[in-house]
From TrEMBL:
The gene is PLEST000794. The chain holds residues 40 to 246 of 779 of the full protein. It comes from the Eukaryota. Signal peptide: none annotated. Belongs to the RNase T2 family. This is Uncharacterized protein. The active site is at H40, E91, H95. It comes from Pleodorina starrii.
């Protein structure tokens, strides 16, 4: 099929739970904000489960264009494994350059992702259902999805790795209105999971 790379059907807003990665790996996170999900990315997708990526190599990431967003990017979109700038550069070139039909500029892409992230606060929804980080407590993935549905009216997809919460994905149409994800395409969910509390080593002890 010959599709224009910038035409797509919907967005996935992907947030990560850094407590899982950082409990097992050396982790580059600098700040512990407690029960707080961080952004992984906003990814254009096709309804058939595939997606466009790396749509325009000439559209290079330029951090200077994001100066007014820098404080919020550093706190809401940090990398757990690399420099923050490399992470943003990767997300821009892989997914942002495919979103130009909706977000014509790098600044509009990043500022809209931050806006969606603020509007759909995951920890706030989970906390209302008493779903909080705990080393031992086992939750059902369904209970997390239900809690988010109760708060925002749409079902996300809950992703796990090694029976720990890794990411929560929400679906948005191209007007940025959320809708319930079709799990058939983006499953990779698990039945049961823990939400390990985020613990960061003191700065001097980091690898
Ligand atoms: P993983 O294999 O860790 O699930 O995904 C690796 C990378 O593939 C992600 O960082 C993302 O860039 C891309 N990816 C995985 N699944 C999807 C998807 O459903 N939609 C889009 N747009 N990208 C995806
Ligand atoms: P994706 O290709 O799935 O959009 O993004 C995943 C890539 O970004 C991985 O190759 C990983 O090396 C890099 N990366 C840098 N920081 C992070 C982070 O905090 N979380 C995740 N999932 N990937 C990160």
């Amino acid at each position: 099929i010959n599709r224009q790379a910038t035409k797509f059907d919907y967005f996935l807003l992907v947030r990560q739970w850094p407590g899982s990665y950082c409990s097992k790996h050396s982790c580059t996170l600098l700040h512990n904000r407690g029960y707080h999900f961080t952004i992984h990315g906003l990814w254009p997708n096709y309804d058939d489960g595939t997606w466009p990526q790396f749509c325009d190599a000439s559209n290079k990431f330029d951090e200077d264009k994001l100066e007014d967003l820098m404080d919020e990017l550093e706190s809401e979109w940090p990398s757990t494994m690399d420099s923050d700038e490399n992470f943003w550069e990767h997300e821009w070139s892989k997914h942002g350059t495919c979103s130009v039909g909706i977000f014509p500029t790098e600044h509009s892409y990043f500022s809209n992702v931050l806006k969606l992230h603020r509007r759909y606060d995951l920890a706030a929804a989970l906390r209302k259902a008493d779903i909080v980080p705990d080393k031992h407590k086992v939750y059902r993935a369904k209970d997390l999805a239900d809690a988010i549905h109760d708060e925002y009216g749409v079902r996300p997809v809950v992703h796990c790795y090694d029976k720990e919460l890794s990411e929560i994905w929400m679906c948005f149409d191209k007007d940025l209105v959320p809708y319930s994800c079709d799990e058939a395409h983006i499953g990779n969910t698990c039945q049961q999971l823990t939400i390990p509390p985020l613990r960061l080593l003191p700065e001097g002890d980091r690898p």
